Amino acid sequence: MTMLLRNAHGEESLRYMRTRALEVENDGDKTLMVFDRPRDVKGTALLTFSHKTELDDQWLYLPALKRVKRIASKNKSGPFMGSEFAFEDLASQEVEKYTYKYLRDEACGDLQCFVIERYPVDPNSGYTRQMVWLDKQEYRPQKIDYYDRKNSLLKTLEFSKYSQYLDRYWRAADMFMSNHQTAKTTLLSWSNYQFRVGLKDSDFNRNSLKRIR
Amino acid sequence: MRLRGLTAMLLFAALPVFADDVEISGYVSAQNRYFVQQELDSRQHGNYVSLAAEPEFYLEKNAGNDVFRFKPFVRLDQYDSKRTHADVREASWLHVSGNSEWLVGVSKEYWGVTESVHLVDIINQTDLVENPDGEQKLGQPMLKFSTVQDWGIVDLFVMPWFRERTFAGKEGRPRSSPRVDSSLTEYDSGSEQHHVDVAARWINSYGDWDIGLSGFYGTSRDPDFIPKVKSSGEVVLAPFYPVIGQIGLDIQATKGDWLWKLETIYRNGQGEENYIAADAGFEYTLVGVAGTQADVGLLLEYLYDDRSKSIVSPFDDDIFAGMRLTLNDAQSTELLFGVVQDRHESSRFFNLEASRRLGESFVLSIQGRFWNNIARDDPLYSLRDDDYIEIDLKRYF
Q1: What total number of domains does chain B contain?
Q2: Which domain holds residue B88?
Q3: Apex CA A98: angle with CA A5 and CA A104, to 5°?
Q4: What is the ipTM of this complex?
Q5: Which residues pair with B6 in a beta bridge?
Q6: B158 vs B214: CA distance, rounded Å
């Protein structure tokens, strides 16, 4: 995946990374993410055991020192790699992480959407609420408005270029986040999605974290 | 030397075969160190320029189950003939089979959790001329076996060749006075550098607790120093490397914004008496300070060493306090400031590290080291006039 960061002056910065994920029954996903660019962080990798409501377990691998550091995961509202995405925007989406309220039906582009308001359960979330537009056809998120702790509109995330994989899984190729308070944007582009590639529980540990490339 | 040379040759011989698949990355750097005070020794200088490079050649085969790495390092220093040095940081073959890994060649291994000193970490020798913080390491020839089990990860090491610590040369700074003369190195073991060292480590996580237990038997990475008079009349320090046994324990509890850390070792063979050393403390992170995206980490550690007199270890009864500022911006701007203060004497050591990415592939970093009010009987006394500020620009490729 790539992230294109753009600030209010139009200056751009690019990040490349790859991620592997394993769904865990009755728990959050296990993910392993490795950074390719910027080049000074090449080989830096992040192992996350996410949980539905408790704090995630996270280890960071720093290749220059060959050091694995267990890191605090309580704060998920901070920026991810200097982008407009917070860790919690990218974390595994579990039903239990929010409470929900149905608001209305509404047109969203060419589609018809359910508009839902959801409230993070985690008191450390950076948001008071999120408004989500889900299309009625396939229940795919089309747009999310994020409201900060002061309940003012902070960011909008727009999903586009959806494709269906294995006749089942819909994934957006582009996720565009714009920050209304700073005028900064981040375009997150996913490519080369692969499913059922045979990842096992044993592919997610300190050793694989040090090895991933 | 022979083993290193052989491994490197084998890797070089293998590389062209797969030349298309070899990934090359790394950096080149230009560095300037400015020393604030007048030098203690007239052979030293006030300002040092140096250049360094660390390329890495990486090759992966069998879907990542065989990995070949070759990572040389070289530095050219304006004045210090000892800081002008080259090393093979890595030259290794890693083979993965199920839950197990084998590694043969030169590699690096990091153990531990604390910030100010690294007691448990013992596999690699310190490349001291690179940085007095001791975090730069020389490549260590080894055979390593690692296995992942439900009850943790176990690593076993056999190390057939010992690496001597690097010390600043006659014209180098910072350095002790009298200087260390590596040509006078002596060993406890009759087989000297060929003593076969062994080590084992177990590490596991239990919820938010990470616990590591390690053992080492072999030539100590930390030399003792014996004053000698050379035929020229110059007094120098000769490094003496004893054979030691060490047991180490490192624990981290990750509780919300608090990281609680402990490292402790029990060592025998270094000096007359067996001893215990420890570093215990915490890092607390204030998230999003003053309505910004920045995080501020507050660090506090207590350093202990039970060897009776501080002439052996500078960190015998000291407090480390530090602050880490992370801006979380697109340029990954970071700053770490720390001070180590002796509890009974005036001795104080300040440390500053800051870095920021410039554009897509440059990183500018600044480091400052200051030794303040160092007591006469402190091992750091001879560094009292070696305060310096370093500016380093790296270009990554």
Answers
A1: 1
A2: 2-396
A3: 90
A4: 0.91
A5: none
A6: 14
Number of domains in chain A: 1
Site from A11, A67, A83, A125 to mutate, B interface, most B CB atoms within 10 angstroms: A67
Q: Check residue B1 and give its pLDDT.
A: 44
Residues in A touching B96 (Cβ below 8 Å) = 211
Is the pLDDT at B18 greater than 70? The verdict is: no
Beta carbons of B360 and A14 less than 8 Å apart: yes
State whether residue A2 sits within 8 Å of chain B by CB: no
Nearest to B48 by CA among B27, B23, B77: B77
How close, in Å, is residue A54 to chain B by CA atoms? 11
State which amino acid sits at residue B93: W
- For the entire predicted model, the pTM comes to 0.91
Give the E-state strand segments of B62-195 in sequence order: 66-77, 85-97, 100-107, 140-149, 152-159, 186-187
CA end-to-end span of chain B: 29
Map B157-203 to HEC letters: EEECCCCCCCCCCCCCCCCCCCCECHHHCEECCCCHHHCCEEEEEEE
Q: Nearest 5 degrees, angle CA A61-CA A64-CA A70?
A: 25
Cis before residue A63, ω within 30 degrees of 0? no
Peptide bond into A38 cis (omega under 30): yes
Across the interface, whether the CB atoms of B332 and A67 are under 8 A apart is answered no
Cα R_g (chain B), whole angstroms: 22
Residue among B67, B99, B288 minimizing CB distance to A202: B99
Contacts of B258 in chain A (CB under 8 A): 72
CATH number at residue A52: 2.50.20.10
Query: What pLDDT score does B316 carry?
Result: 79
Question: Is A211 at the interface with chain B, CB within 8 A?
Answer: yes
Q: Is the separation of the CB atoms in B127 and B142 below 8 Å?
A: no
| DSSP string across A49-66 | E--SSSPPEEEEEETTTT
Reported as a single tens digit per residue, the pLDDT across B205-215 is 999 999 999 99
Write out the DSSP string of B270-293.
SSSS-EEEEEEEEEEEE-SGGGSS
3-state secondary structure at position B120: coil
Domain interval for residue A174: 2-211
